[in-house]
Amino acid sequence: MIKGLKGIVATETSISHIDGDQGRLVYRGYDISDLTNKCSFEEVAYLLWYGKLPTERDLKNLKEELRKNRTLDSFLVEILNSLPANMDMMSVLRTAISAMGTVNYTWKPTISQAIKLTAIIPTIIAYRKRTLDGERFVSPHDDLDHVANYLYMLNGKVPQKPHVTSLESYMILTLEHGMNASTFSARVTASTESDLVSAITSAIGTMKGPLHGGAPSGVIELLNEISIAGDAEKVIRHKLNQNEKLMGFGHRVYKTHDPRSIALKETLLNLVGQDKWLDLAIEVEKSAIKLLEEYKPGRSLYTNVEFYAAAIMQSIELDASLFTPTFTSSRIVGWTSHVIEQSEDNTIYRPQSTYVGKFMSSSV
Ligand code: ACO
């Protein structure tokens, strides 16, 4: 029995490839370093869904489809208004997406369904955030693309270009990542020939956990704690002495630097240059890698994507409650691509377990 299915290959895929030893991530044959900062969110989403980069016309059509599906239906507004104020954003997303499961989303999943779900997530997030903050909802902006429109709906003003570029880099880098826990969840649900909405609802529930998509908030807490204490080494040693995990470090597959973390750090250095949070993050990274090697020798623990993602979100002033939901609004593209791939050559996932309980005598 292999705990956590470590190292087990669960399926074949042509969506992405991760080389954990070399620190390489490939989407449909293209290295992510060739896509980030050169392509838009829409272009890379198209690549993942259709398996090829779009022509100008394809791209125009995809943007149009996304725009058409950004508006909240009245039943979703009613649901969102009825949710308790203390419900976290990931639970809100899970509930709202689940409520979209109508006859329009029956088996088999399609790219058109995937586009609809991808288009609506930023609007759900922005609606909920602004309503909770007592602010007027800002309707989608017809002239803005997916990422810029998300920031526009959140803040009520057309975003600065560097903010859009930073967020778009992050979102492209997190669109897809092989058989991670939430993608696996989505594929398991789809493998029963359940619908796309159910598969994505499963994935959102899985994404929510602090060991997966919930890590960026933990990174901010770590950076805050170190910023207040003024001594990175002391705080990190204390955590490692308590056997606590450092959020934003370690990865199941990468046993070297996570290429997404390197790309995000570069994006940040190019766009914001000198910045309090970025300087602190670089200092913490250095100190943590040294101490992790001391406390956990040979485990090859480096920063993962969530570490510099937290610094990006901080630098564009995105509220911490939106970190994991923003990750969700990019990863939905990977989830939906996988569900569609699963449907094309489906076998239900049904592993086994080893019974370690007792066997009682037959007299009950
Ligand atoms: N801090 C301290 N020690 C760590 C860390 C960490 N962040 N990550 C792993 N280790 C240690 C473990 O304690 C374990 O030590 P041991 O051999 O003495 O028992 C060893 O390294 C191996 O760790 P596992 O937890 O077995 O590695 P696994 O592959 O199961 O876990 C995971 C990967 C979940 C990402 C883990 O590194 C972790 O919890 N990191 C912190 C949370 C985080 O940043 N999550 C975001 C991941 S990226 C993403 O999901 C998008």
From TrEMBL:
Gene3D superfamilies referenced in this protein's UniProt entry, alphabetically: Citrate Synthase, domain 1 (1.10.580.10), Cytochrome P450-Terp, domain 2 (1.10.230.10)
Pathway listed: Carbohydrate metabolism; tricarboxylic acid cycle
UniProt KW keywords: Acyltransferase, Transferase
Catalytic activities: oxaloacetate + acetyl-CoA + H2O = citrate + CoA + H(+)
MF terms (GO), sorted A to Z: citrate synthase activity
InterPro entries recorded: Citrate_synth-like_lrg_a-sub (IPR016142), Citrate_synth-like_sm_a-sub (IPR016143), Citrate_synthase (IPR002020), Citrate_synthase_AS (IPR019810), Citrate_synthase_bac-typ (IPR024176), Citrate_synthase_sf (IPR036969)
Protein name, UniProt field: Citrate synthase
